Amino acid sequence: MKFSISKYFGPSTLVTAAFIGPGTITICTLAGVTGGYTLLWAVVFSVFTTIILQEMTARLGLVTQNGFGEAIRDQLQQPVLRGLAVILIFGAIIIGNAAYEGGNISGAVLGFNEFFGTITYEFGDYTIPLAPLIIGGIAFLILFIGEVKLIEWFLIGLVMILSIVFITTAVVLEPDVQQILRGMFIPFTGDTDWVLLVGLIGTTVVPYNLFLHASLVKEKYSSVRSLSDLRKENATAIIIGGVISICIIITSATTLFGNSEIQSAADMAQQLEPLLGSWSGYFLGIGLFAAGISSAITAPLAAAYAARGILGWESDSLRSFKFRLVWISILVLGVLSSLFGGSPIEIIQFAQVTNGILLPLVAVFLLYLMNQTKLLGVYTNGIFQNTAGFLVLLVACALGIRSLNAVFQFL
């Protein structure tokens, strides 16, 4: 049987590249710094969750040749229920993507500042940092021109090189394998920072990726006969992403455990010094900048595609007024969040937590659609898929509630 590597790379690869962004690097570094290897199980759970949910939304896109948003709109015929669903999902996507965009731009700011320092402009009594405006302007130009693919793949290539460096560093450090396995397969919540835990899940299981994936699969797959290939590609890409996340935690836990002063790219870069030495700060700076820009392009586009599907817009054009209005809004909110939201590390962490809390809402609608025989015929969820999906939903809800309680102390 002839082996084809192309079977293992496709739409799911872009999904993985989207979640291996500045948020993943930052949150995984903080997880290793504060908890050592104890939160590795959360990455394992997140990878399992992502494989399950992304397979569902990819299968939905393959069978229907439509996006997630279109499916929600078409299946909910009762006007009140449809209106409520549109408001909830559209609100979740806007809130989640705006928060995520703030994290993307702030991640790129960390990389930018590593090279150029903090550049500011004095406006009366106000000091305005220019990096978020510069990065937002770059993302705006790329999106406005509409030539996204080539630039995005170049930036993704830089992120993949950074990922290889983390994996290599994790091997060079020769960490305690027994402790790693214990952290991966024995859930520990004794002294857990619940907000960080939900952020760790939110940086991997990204709600907007569910909308993006369903819309992307039809570019490569046109027949349900490709379902097996799609599943292999999906699992391969997401497992690779999970290995990268695990390696980031391992490197930070091995080199920085107990260090509470993580405020910049230079602080995070210390974990790469065993491999790169004095070049580690520059290398991580490039990686964060590339990851931030590529994600700052992807998130607004995903929001616009979701809005198009849910609101029933006919035009697919990146240059249509309504489409541009959505992605411009997300981009502007992201820039404002980066300008006025606090330190980049705090903004990135908030973005991942927001996505982790919004995940159950999106998952409910996905599970509902995946059990509609009129929509999917024989390709509806089976017993295993529903059981796994509901388990994921229950755990995500519990973690979200626990995280909110840690912040607001309402229980």
Number of E-state strands: 2
Strand order of the largest sheet: 1-2
- Biggest β-sheet, characterized? 2 strands, antiparallel
Mean pLDDT: 82
Stated plainly, the CATH topology is called: Amino acid/polyamine transporter I
**Strand portion, in percent?**
under 5%
Q: What's the name of the CATH homologous superfamily?
A: Amino acid/polyamine transporter I
Q: Tell me the distance between the termini.
A: 58 Å
Radius of gyration: 20 Å
State the shape: globular
Which CATH-level-2 architecture? Up-down Bundle
Indicate the percent of residues in helices: over 70%
What is the CATH domain class? Mainly Alpha
Structural classification: mainly alpha
State the domain count. 1
- Count of runs of 4 or more consecutive helical residues: 18
Secondary-structure element string: HHHHHEEHHHHHHHHHHHHH
The unreliable regions are none
Concise overview:
With 411 residues, the chain is mainly alpha-helical. 75% of the residues lie in helices and 2% in strands.
Account of the protein in words:
With about 400 residues, this protein is mostly helical. It has a single domain, classed as Up-down Bundle (Amino acid/polyamine transporter I), CATH 1.20.1740. The chain has 18 helices and 2 strands. A hairpin with a 2-residue loop joins strand 1 and strand 2. Helix 2 crosses helix 11, helix 5 runs antiparallel to helix 14 and helix 9 packs across helix 18. The longest helix is centred in the N-terminal third of the chain and has 38 residues. The protein starts with 10 loop residues before the first helix and ends with a helix. The mean pLDDT is about 80.
